[in-house]
Every structure is written in C-alpha cells, then in structure tokens.
Write a structure and sequence with these properties.
The chain is α+β, with helices and mostly antiparallel strands. It folds into two domains: 1-133, no CATH class; 139-213, SH3 type barrels, CATH 2.30.30. It has helices spanning 3-22, 27-43, 49-73, 77-101, 122-133, 143-150, 196-205, and strands at residues 157-162, 165-174, 180-184, 192-195, 208-211.
C-alpha cells in the first residue's frame, strides 16, 4: 500500500464521516487533519539532528493516532499491517541521516526511543502545520516562488531534479492550510512530500520548475 493510497482511499473517508456527523469545527476533525499533516511531515527529509529528534519524539503519538483511526475505520488487519510495515521502512530511511550525523554526541538521538511516553499534544501537532507555512529567514526574495506555489492546484505538474535526472510529478494533494504538498507520477509512484518552505527553496535553487501539462 502507498501512503497516497491510504490517505485517498481510507483516511479521507474517516474525515468525511467526522465532517458529516460533527462538522468541521469538531476536535476530531482538527485531529484528523493534524494527523495527516504530521504524517507527511514525518516522511519529509530532516535538515539536522534537532529535526530528527523532533521526528523521533513525534512517532509514538503519530503511530498511535494512525492506529486509532484504523480502529475507527475497521481497517482490515492485513491492510493495516502493510501500511505500518511501509511506514517503518520509510521512517527508518528518514531517521538514518540524522542518526548518522549525531557522531560522538554523548546523548545519542536513539535514546529518544526510551522516552516514547512523551506524547505530542494537539497543540504540538498543530504547530507542525504552522511550521510548514514558515519560510526560512535570510534566504533572499521568495515572492515569485511563493506566487507560483499559491497558484498550484491538484493535477498541476512540477519538474524535479532528482539524483541528476529530471522527473515530472503531478500535485496529488495540498493540506488544508496550504503548508504541505504531495507529488507523485501519473502511476502514483515516486511520491514526494514537501513543506511549502522546502518547495519554495527548490524552485529558487532550480531543483524544481513549474510545468504546463
């Protein structure tokens, strides 16, 4: 199972059920969207050890939220196992650079696994939404890049420079606050999730370019 498939075919129905039963002001609605944004943030590359620590601290709460959602949906055990096996593999890949960069740090990042009882609150998860909307200071003028990003809609294409090769990916999903973007090719593979700040940076550096399809 791909993460995109899980979100579109399963989690979206959970959110729809909450919306039609309670509306979009209910705490469960906010929690559902915060979980989506936290999931996509967890799959994005981490810049440094500090972000890796935040990521590892988030995982117990995030995985618990996803398990609760799967319970509420009555998701088949085999589908659930496939999802969490994939997440384990992807999260290991995300954490590896930060763990390796820790070097001789007297407090290895992996010790956070022993502090898994420090749960993220709803405010913490919402804070990830706010973080994705921020642009790193001191990086020059982002106006043109942000204008292009703000005009993006599902189905639009972006050409990414990945490992020295150009890949044309389509925008599959935008978070409600416009802070997270999910791209994939036409077949739904080569999925890439980026925060708004990261996407703006790639456009500015020439690692991504808007394309007309």
């Amino acid at each position: 199972m791909e993460i995109r498939q899980f979100l579109l075919e399963h989690w979206s129905y959970l959110l729809a059920g909450i919306y039609f039963s309670h509306g979009d002001q209910h705490p469960d609605w906010a929690a559902g969207w915060h979980t989506v944004n936290a999931l996509l943030w967890s799959l994005a590359p981490k810049r440094d050890q500090e972000e890796t620590e935040q990521f590892l601290s988030l995982l117990p709460t995030l995985l618990g939220r996803l398990q609760d959602g799967c319970d509420a949906m009555g998701l088949d055990v085999s589908v659930r196992d496939e999802l969490f096996s994939l997440l384990a593999m992807l999260h290991a890949a995300v954490a590896r650079p930060g763990l390796e960069s820790a070097g001789d740090n007297p407090r290895p990042v992996t010790q956070l696994a022993q502090e898994a009882d420090r749960a993220f609150s709803e405010a913490d998860l919402a804070g990830l939404d706010a973080e994705t909307l921020s642009i790193e200071p001191g990086r020059g003028d982002h106006g043109q890049d942000l204008a292009g990003i703000d005009a993006l809609k599902v189905g639009d294409g972006i050409r990414f420079r990945i490992d020295g090769r150009d890949k044309a990916l389509l925008l599959q999903w935008i978070s409600p606050m416009g802070g997270m973007f999910l791209f994939a090719d036409k077949a739904g593979y080569d999925a890439v999730s980026l925060t708004r700040a990261r996407l703006a940076e790639k456009l500015r550096l020439g690692d991504a370019s808007l394309m007309s399809l």
